[in-house]
Amino acid sequence: MRDVIEGRVWVLGKDVDTDQIISGKYLTIIDPEELKKHVFEIALPEFASAARAGDIVVADENFGCGSSREHAPQALRAIGVSALLADSFARIMFRNAINLGLPAIELRGVRALFEKGDLARIEMGAGRITNLRTGRTISFPPLPSQVLDLLEAGGLVETVRRRLIAEGKAAAQ
Asked: Mean of the per-residue pLDDT values for the chain?
């Protein structure tokens, strides 16, 4: 994860649930390359074919509500989404995103700052989000250092995986 993230914005409304992010009928798919073909299949049908690495998803309230499936942030990360911004997140979506290394910033009023296709600049350390088209900026409390460390490492899942590998090597010596 970089301290500064810039990307093209995709805009969503309120109460986008995990089934809209990735339909439950795809939950048997474990290959991220296959999973990413179905992201926002109903909510934004053009997303899977038009999304580019570095794009940013901006949503209104309660993004990621519904079931606690990790497939939703996993599919977003696989397609190349670099960050999630929302007026509010469902708690489990926020946690799953961070656990999988996908920055998620909750900030009232962020949805109103953007239109589809705008360019966003997120300064993680400074706690600032800017619409590069309009120049409008909004501030947020910077994420705690331990969360930034997790994101830098690729998420909690990757951190634990690396630790287990290191412990296994140390035990073998």
From this structure: 93
For the chain, the domains span 4-172
pLDDT, tens digit, 9 for 90 and up, residues 108-144: 999 999 999 999 999 998 999 999 999 999 999 988 8
User: 41, 48 in Cβ contact below 8 A?
Assistant: yes
Q: What is the DSSP string of the chain?
A: --SEEEEEEEE--S--BHHHHS-GGGTT---HHHHGGGTTTTTSTTHHHH--TT-EEEE-TTBTBSS--THHHHHHHHHT--EEEES-B-HHHHHHHHHTT--EEE-TTSGGG--TT-EEEEETTTTEEEETTT--EEE-PPPPHHHHHHHHHT-HHHHHHHHHHHHHHHHH-
Residue with tokens 């290959």: 31
* CATH T-level topology, domain 4-172: Aconitase; domain 4 (3.20.19)
User: What pLDDT sits at residue 1?
Assistant: 57
Q: What is the pTM of this model?
A: 0.92
